[in-house]
Known about the structure:
Blueprint: H1 2-53, H2 57-91, H3 95-139, E1 144-145, H4 151-154, H5 162-175, H6 192-198, E2 202-203, E3 212-213, H7 229-240, H8 248-255, H9 262-265, E4 269-270
Parallel strand pairs: 1-2, 3-4
Helix pairs in contact: 2-3
Amino acid sequence: xxxxxxxxxxxxxxxxxxxxRNVNVAVSLTIVATxxxxxxxxxxxxxxxxxxxxxxxxxxKYEEDVRRFKQEIAEASETSHLRYSKWVRDxxxxxxxxxxxxxxxxxNKLDYKKESKKTEYTSGHFKDATxxxxxxxxxxxLQVDINTADTAELRKLxxxxxxxxxxxxxxxxxxGGFYTVEQLAEVYSIDAELVERLKKYIVCNGNSVAKIDIxxxxxxxxxxxxxxxxxxxxxxxxxxxxKRYKSFDEIKAEIGYDENLNGRAEKYLEFK
Length: 272
């Protein structure tokens, strides 16, 4: 009898212990879920607050232009009102004064229209000039060395985003450096028109390119973007047979000269 009661008590104790564990797990999950919801709510609040506070310099400049334009219109309107009041006072003197004042008022109205148009043109011209100066000042004085700049520096250039900056670095590495700005047009997604716009913001030191010692390079390791096709095949075979070139002129004499290929490759070869 005592043994059965002890068994029942132990079984009941295990059930209570299991129930307590289940309750603790449920409470812990509830606390974690509540904390996550709080964090997400705070994040959304901060993002909304930052979005409301964010305003570009151009928008602020545009609002300032609009405010100034409205002020100019108000001043012109006040000037017109003063002239009209003067006309009313002068018209009460005599009929002749009235006629003269009428003519003067007529001319004043014309002057006001001209002045209004002039004010409107000036304000619009100022706005366009402000936008142009803003674009110019954004890159004024920018000088980026395309042979040493990392992707962060390259992204400062107009029209160069993250992907184009990575493409520039990748192609620069395969070349061994740029010897002229025009080589940027060979980079994927960059055309000659963009390169032309970038020229005034770019520095390119052609003397810093890495060169290949063609006579002391293992033939199968000889590779360069400008060494292709029959040019590369012939050079490898000559070196494998013990040929040592003294200058690029020997290569041109044996293989021929192609300005678009051999001419560019010459910048990256040396002969020791």
